[in-house]
Design goal:
This protein is 0% helix and 60% strand. It has 179 residues and is mainly beta. It is globular and about 40 Å long.
Amino acid sequence: INDGSVSANAETLSNAATKAVGIYTDSNFGNIRNSTSGSIMAVANGSRAYGIATKNNYNYGDITNEGNISADASSKDDDATAFGIKADRNDGKIENSGSITAEATSSSYFKHDANAYGIFASSNNNDILNSGSITAAAVKSDSNNNGDIKAFGIYADENNGSISNTGSGSITANAEGSR
């Protein structure tokens, strides 16, 4: 349980990829909870930022956000990808009643992407519930505008469970740039 503040920062002075992760576990079989007073911030100036992530991307337990999660990735030389919550395979429950913000900005002149995911579960086999706020924003800002620009509030490539946005829940996804 996080009742306080978690901050992860990664920065590179070269063109090496960086990764910042607020809360990380190999595989989640228990409960990860960011309480109403909890704050998780991950900032990566180089490549990828994750608010909450599982290494092998398996979630068999519960991931609950009641507070604030912010993931901000920016890059001048690589893809920029931000995940509020990432669990490739969700066999547990992911629930948000707080605020999740994922922002990705790529200013690379070459073919690099900007991708932002509020909640990412490539394979969802249980429940993803939102009654809070999810914002995903991806920006590609260069004169050449090569690369993809994608923003997803909730992403589930394969859904065998349920995805619900209820009550006062709001999901916003914006992708900016031109190709």
